[in-house]
């Protein structure tokens, strides 16, 4: 076997492992972090129940819709830049600019619709007053 062929083979194998291995390891690490957080919360709730305390109910969290605005603005700007680049080069292919531009406009429209809908929602009455304190554990 020729040493240059061996080096090229090993280099190719290392490149493939690095390209596909890093994202797979990142996904596994993210799942491990999420599972540990969920497990910790569960143990805390179980400990409270064992001590006779009433754990607070899980909070309903509303999603943050500002990600739509940021993503939409980025897509719209990217599409506008592609469109302007095609105009400047006197090309006839405007599809890329229109595609990203309309995706950006659609995301900005979604942001505006969600924002108006959230403003028109009635306020939760549970948030108006503080929750009752948990009962005291039994005294010996």
Structure description:
This protein has 140 residues and is mostly helical. The protein has two domains: 58 residues; 54 residues. 69% of the residues lie in helices and 0% in strands. The protein has three helices and no strands. Helix 2 packs antiparallel against helix 3. The protein starts with a helix and ends in a 20-residue tail after the last helix.
Mean pLDDT equals: 80
Unreliable stretches (pLDDT < 50, length at least 5) are: none
Gyration radius from CA atoms, angstroms: 27 Å
- Strand runs, count: 0
Instruction: Give the ordered list of helices and strands.
Output: HHH
N-end to C-end Cα span: 81 Å
**Helix residue percentage:** 55-70%
Note the main sheet. none
Structure class: mainly alpha
